[in-house]
Description:
Blueprint: H1 14-18, H2 26-42, H3 44-61, H4 68-91, H5 102-106, H6 108-119, H7 121-126, H8 131-152, H9 157-177, H10 181-232, E1 235-240, H11 251-257, H12 261-264, H13 269-274, H14 285-296, E2 300-309, E3 312-324, E4 330-339, H15 341-354, H16 365-382, E5 387-394, H17 396-403, H18 405-420, E6 427-433, E7 436-441, H19 447-461, E8 465-467, E9 470-472, E10 475-482, H20 490-506, E11 512-514, H21 517-536, E12 542-551, E13 557-568, E14 572-574, H22 576-585, H23 589-604, E15 612-616, H24 619-622, H25 627-638, E16 645-649, H26 661-670, E17 674-680, H27 687-692, E18 697-700, H28 702-709, H29 713-729, E19 732-736, H30 741-750, E20 754-756, H31 766-782
Parallel strand pairs: 10-11, 13-15, 15-16, 16-17, 17-18, 18-19, 19-20
Antiparallel strand pairs: 1-4, 2-3, 3-4, 5-7, 5-10, 6-7, 8-9, 12-13, 12-20, 13-14
Helix pairs in contact: 2-4, 2-10, 3-4, 3-8, 4-6, 6-9, 8-9, 8-10, 9-10, 17-18, 23-25, 25-26, 28-29, 28-30
Amino acid sequence: MSRSSAPRRLSIPLRTLLGLAEGDDPALWSRIRAAQLFAGQQLAPLLLAANIFAAGIVALLFATAVPIHFLAAWGVAVSAICAVVAVRRHRTARFDNGYATLGELRDTALEGLALAAVWSVPPLLFAGHGGAAGQFGLWVVLSLLMTAAAVSMATLVLAAVAFIGGLAVTMTIPLMLQHAYVPAATTLLLAALLIAACIARARALVALRGSELTLYDRDETVSLLLREFEDSGADWLWESDAQRRLCKVNPRFAHALGKPASELEGMPLLQALAGADWADGTFDDGLRLLADRLKRRDSFRDLTLRLTIGDAVRWWSVAASPRLDERGAFVGFRGVISDVTERRASEEAITRMARSDMLTGLPNRLAINEALAAALDAAERGGGRAAFMMIDLDRFKAVNDTLGHPIGDRLLGRVAERLAAMVTATELIGRLGGDEFAVVVTDAADSARVERLAHAIIDTLSQPYEVDQHTLYVGASVGVATSPRDGRTAETLIRSADLALYRSKDAGGGVFHAYEPKLHVEAEERRILEMALRKALENGELHLDYQPVVDAGGERLSGFEALLRWHSPTLGSIPPSRFIPLAEEARLIGPIGAWVIRTACEEAARWPGDTRVAVNVSPEQLHNPAFVTVVTQALAASGLAPSRLELEVTEGVFLKEGTVAVQVLERILDLGVRLSLDDFGTGYSSLGYLSRTRFSSIKIDRSFVTAASNGAPEALAIIRAVVALAQSLGLATTAEGVETEGELDMIRTLGCTSVQGFYFGRPLPVAEARSLAVRSRAGARAA
């Protein structure tokens, strides 16, 4: 047996042996304690006989010296205690191969103490009446009794210690009183030797029993494993001779092959495994590998074979080692064959699951990547082309937001069904995740056919869906990349298709775009711009300009609109139309918007009077409940009155129902901050939110002002309608983009209350805006 498999040596602390503490393996020690108690029960007759015999001898020694009634009473006490001990020992028969608690072993000390107490009577009360001969006889009897106890109570160490120790003390006391120091010391020495022998014997018994239990448990485990091995019928031993012919054929191995053992005896192993395929040589490649291993006479394992046994396909795993005789000569192989068919089926099922999308049943991202890599490899070897098509559903998020994810999941299932119906032998359609799908086109030599497929996908997916009594409309945007022009690796081609899809989504969706090199250039520019924008705030590259807003009637300055500007040391001045959408997409609008609010409030606090500052707020900022804290802290830190801060929001804030944006606006309005609706009429206009939200003003977009000044009747009608609507709701109106005196006169005539534009001033640096605010206030006082 190897050292690693040898049984662990049992640790036997004295406190555990006595029953005063639990062992390191409670389950094992509970069985050992049961063995101790059972061994004590087996030796109980010896203890009972020794006590009765010794009591008789003592009675004879002191029959003439001690009154008979004393001796009789003592004898009855000895008999009663012995009877109780015998009964208690008899009850421990149930502990054979059982379990015992610490308390059950510890209670045996009471038996030892009771016996020691009853046997303390003769040396303390009788010895003084029997003379020297009586005392010597009593000493001999009690010494023999302690020896008998050490034998019969050896396994019950605590009881033996209590009895031997207690009796030795009572024997020593009268000897010490008589100054018989040598006999007293001899008595104590004898008791110590008996206790030590008792402990040693108990340790030996416990060690033996512990080993027996350990081996028993191990044998049980091995038996269970062997029984499971025999019952499973999935593993068979086999043996071959030097010519690779089967010998000593296992009956279960023969049964697994569906042939009698006698027929297999002497048959070549390969022929037995190949079965009906042996004649024409069309057997599995695994058998050829097995033949090679057998020929080389090497040990091998986990060699998997695909066999046809009867009408069933089975998978077997073979392991074997060469057999050598006493001279070291090769005499054949011995090995084991395991039926791994079920395990193989489970592995294949797991593999399918790992490559299938759980929601739609289509190939998932992993399977798509593998198929694309295989298609590119085949195209490279054959001089052909492969294509990768990315599909993104339009308006799918609105379905999820309004009807919930269960409806959205069922909609994705319907989309998958339509896509699966379009698959041909040269395409693989799968789901990347979310509402993104992909198509691997293995033969993309005909680019027109690929384009027709893309348009067919858009048309098919744009048809209405009936889901849970809802009629749903979603579209699709498609981006395509083709190898080797747009990439030679799966990673590159996927990135190129993604850029093409981005262009389709940016164009409004429902369209198809093929990859162009300039898309990569634009993406790289966008990446560089985003990296620079991430550092712009901390590097102090952002600043605010302030454009004056004046009353339309008296042309008095009423406030400024804070306009964010970015000047990069490396990229130069970047217009807001480029970096604001990027900030929203990259989730940078939060920290940048918070900086704008703080900076604008700090500057406005320096302006005299009630001059207001207006700040544009992104919908992304309002979807964050923490934006209320940003505004509150900016007002508190600057000391600006809330009524002097005006937040400008666009209609896009109200697109999604049930978001926190409206609640955030209400909390900000409760602070006393003013609210303006920016670019009214250019987006998703709705009169409902005008009545539900406490706006202070409506801003008319410059496109209407420019068109109206050029005589467009529609623009004039829109401005009149907006002004009339604002007046009926008690709101002010601000016209943007006023650049000429004629436009100003028109705006006044139409009834707008405030104007903003180059006619009154371009966006000003902070120092000039502050100076204008001071002059305007001074002019107002002078007037």
